Amino acid sequence: MLRDKGRFGGRQVIPANWIEASLTPRTRSPFSGLAYGYGWFLSDTGWALARGYGGQIIAAHLQKNLAVAITSDPNQPARSEGYFSDLMALLEGPVAALG
Asked: Least CB-packed of 44, 58, 68, 89 within 10 Å?
């Protein structure tokens, strides 16, 4: 839904202006340094990320038309000082190259 700017099956399900507002940086995480909109962490390279427990990530890159779901080991530390940086390197490197 995010990647498609609120559209699904040819219909506008979520207002496009809400998608735009949710991707507008409102603050910055003191832990990861990423900007934060309404529910989304925002990278400087265009990724919007929803982070869940244990390194679970839903990521979208609108300019590259990519949407990605990552599942991780919930028993490993996934904070920014944990393997979250490894997951970001995966998104920024090989995954971004697909778009």
From this structure: 44
Phi/psi-derived region of residue 9, left when phi > 0, alpha when psi is between -120 and 50, beta in every other case: left
> And the tokens for 21?
């507002």
Which letter does DSSP use for residue 39 in this model? S
Q: What is the tens place of the pLDDT at every residue in 31-81?
A: 888 999 999 999 999 999 998 887 788 999 999 999 999 888 777 766 666
Burial 34-64 (b: 16+ CB within 10 A, else e): bbebeebbbbeebbbbebeeebebebbbbeb
Instruction: Assess contact for 40 and 23: CB atoms under 8 A.
Output: yes
C-alpha dihedral sign at 32, 86, 71, 97: positive
